[in-house]
Amino acid sequence: MLSGIVSGVHPSAATAVTPDGRAVFDRSCSVCHSINPPPKSAPPVIPLANRYHEKFATKAEGVAHMAAFLKKPDKNKAVDQQAVTRFGLMPLIKLTDAELKAVTGWFWDQYNPAMGRGRGMGGGQRRLMNQ
User: Which among 9, 11, 102, 107 would be 20 to 30 A from 124, CA to CA?
Assistant: First the structure.
């Protein structure tokens, strides 16, 4: 605190650190969500991030929808209804607004167009092997 006063930075500003989205994911989400297939007990991040990119034109729209969903999970507002059918509705995870902003921004950025829609488990590889 003294260093904040000496440097002219307000002490609360010195301790207000923006959370790291990956760290929030690792701490609060990775128990259920893997990054890539195969899934744990919830949809993997990259295929789900791809669904958000399909549904929302901008990062701001996608992140806002995801944050609202995380604050109050609702199966009717899920981006992937098949995931809700397969895994069930995710439980409410208590995150601060800063943590929500960080993790949803990180999640959006995991989009990988090479993954396609992420449906199926290796169907493309199987087709190549059978040719």
Answer: 107
Can you tell me whether residue 45 is helix, strand or coil? helix
**Choices 3.40.50.1010, 3.30.9.10, 2.30.42.10, 1.10.760.10: CATH for 19-115:** 1.10.760.10
- Measured in whole angstroms, how far is the alpha carbon of residue 103 from the centre of its chain? 6
Closest CA to 79 of 116, 49, 111, 42: 49
pLDDT in tens, 83-122: 999 999 999 999 999 999 999 999 999 999 887 654 444 4
Q: Residue 48 above 90 pLDDT?
A: yes
Q: Which two tokens stand for residue 29?
A: 């989400």
Across residues 35-48, what is the average pLDDT? 96
Question: Whole-prediction pTM value?
Answer: 0.75
Backbone φ and ψ for 15, nearest 5 degrees, come out as -95, -10
The two tokens of residue 65 are 């929808």
